[in-house]
């Protein structure tokens, strides 16, 4: 499998991430933020990534630093697992429905970090989770993984459904992009002959 392992420690958080891009959807995540753990389980299950994440953070302040640092570490782990990106499909495109919600995700494992986020979450919180942190999660992940990521909500009224559809669509698009293209025969999917974060 293609593994990426990252340990990140600051005065605010301690985070460890281990991801296998060629897994079977095994998730063992404990961030101290129950709703985030639920979303990471969606990422693992629908992307078929094996994901182990442990985080301890300053949750007595709020979830912001832990949410951010988990995403930063996950992006770095994905970057490591991708390696030189030889033979991958590179692009991913998926729309996921969840009841009334529908979210479309398109991504490019280009090495160029960019996030376009058009999601309107109607409530400030789902459980104890601040819904503003969804965008911040994906921005942080984009920054360290170097992917171009477009997220667009097409429908939805229920905050939980919208966010979960977002993570499911992202999981399937990332799965598609990281899978191998047999016709590539191991070549790098770029006319430049190189795909890198640098």
TrEMBL record:
User: What molecular function terms (GO) are annotated for this protein?
Assistant: imidazoleglycerol-phosphate dehydratase activity
- Listed GO CC annotations: chloroplast
Q: What is its EC number?
A: 4.2.1.19
**Domain of life of the organism encoding this protein:** Eukaryota
Q: Where in the cell is it found?
A: Plastid, Chloroplast
Keyword Amino-acid biosynthesis annotated:
yes
Q: EC top class, in one word? A: lyase
Q: Which UniProt keywords apply?
A: Amino-acid biosynthesis, Histidine biosynthesis, Lyase
Q: Which NCBIfam families match?
A: PRK00951.1-3, PRK00951.1-5, PRK00951.2-1, PRK00951.2-4
Family from the record: Belongs to the imidazoleglycerol-phosphate dehydratase family.
This chain belongs to which protein, by name? Answer: Imidazoleglycerol-phosphate dehydratase
Q: Which organism is it from?
A: Nothoceros aenigmaticus
Q: What is the lineage of its organism?
A: Eukaryota, Viridiplantae, Streptophyta, Embryophyta, Anthocerotophyta
């Amino acid at each position: 499998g293609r593994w990426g392992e990252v340990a990140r420690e600051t005065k605010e958080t301690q985070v460890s991430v281990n991801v296998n891009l060629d897994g079977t959807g095994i998730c063992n995540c404990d961030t101290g933020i129950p709703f985030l753990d639920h979303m990471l389980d969606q990422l693992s299950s629908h992307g078929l990534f094996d994901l182990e994440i442990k985080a301890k953070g300053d949750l007595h302040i709020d979830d912001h630093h832990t949410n951010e640092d988990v995403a930063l570490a996950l992006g770095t782990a994905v970057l490591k697992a991708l390696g030189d990106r030889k033979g991958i499909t590179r692009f991913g495109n998926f729309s996921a429905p969840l009841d009334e919600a529908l979210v479309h995700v398109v991504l490019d494992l280009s090495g160029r970090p960019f996030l376009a986020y058009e999601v309107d979450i109607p409530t400030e919180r789902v459980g104890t989770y601040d819904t503003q942190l969804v965008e911040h999660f994906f921005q942080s992940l984009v920054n360290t993984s170097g992917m171009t990521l477009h997220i667009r909500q097409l429908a939805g009224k229920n905050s939980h459904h919208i966010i979960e559809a977002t993570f499911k669509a992202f999981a399937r698009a990332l799965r598609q992009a990281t899978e191998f293209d047999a016709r590539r025969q191991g070549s790098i999917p770029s006319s430049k002959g190189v795909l890198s974060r640098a």
